[in-house]
Amino acid sequence: MPRITKPETISSRVREIKKFYQDTGRMPSYAEIGDLTGLRSKNAVFKLIGKLEKLKVMERDKKGRLMPLAIAKPVKVLGTVEAGFPSPAEEELVDTLSLDDFLIQNREATFLLKVSGDSMSGAGILPGDMVIVDKGQTPKSGDIVIAQVDGEWTMKYLRKRGDSVTLIPANPKYQPIKPKNELKIAGVVTAVVRKYK
């Protein structure tokens, strides 16, 4: 007779995986899922992951890496705030939103970088900020890009005019950069994340 997995067993295993994701900011490996859930065999872990995929708790990317779905903790959206003159506001639950879904369009091609230096301060990107970079986007003139210029990495506005390419800082203390030999663009900056506390 086949063994029936109790719903509470699956939900407790989901809780363990969710806690790991929220504590570490990454999905556990297959081996870590085995440790978290008490499953000793790889086959049992694969079966659990298959069930959780059907329940839309998580998914696998093209390389088989686990990606969060329902366990990515959504944040309440309570409406809008006036950034001009003060106005009366009432708290009203409008929706919930996962910051991953809001900030990341192409999960497999996206990575984070911590900013050092102030050459992009005029674009609102300050030292200590994290930038979200999509390496799958085709860079266009006017995009902020992560680029390797003659062996050195930098983040600047990309300006294309015909065959000419220039990297433009957003701080007048710095000079525009024209590649002498080589330019490699690693990705396009799509968002900036800043913590105040």
Describe the model:
By secondary structure, this protein is an alpha+beta fold. The chain is built from 4 helices and 10 strands. The protein has helices at residues 7-24, 30-37, 42-54, 99-103, and strands spanning 58-60, 66-68, 75-77, 95-97, 110-114, 130-134, 144-149, 152-161, 164-168, 183-193. The chain has a 6-stranded antiparallel sheet with strand order 5-6-10-7-8-9, with no helix packed on it. A hairpin with a 2-residue loop joins strand 7 and strand 8. Helix 2 packs across helix 3 (42-54). The radius of gyration is 22 Å and the shape is elongated. The termini are far apart. Residues 1-8 have low confidence and may be disordered.
The 3D shape can be described as elongated
Proportion of strand residues: 25-35%
Q: Widest sheet: strand order?
A: 5-6-10-7-8-9
Could you say which structural class the secondary elements and strand pairing correspond to?
alpha+beta
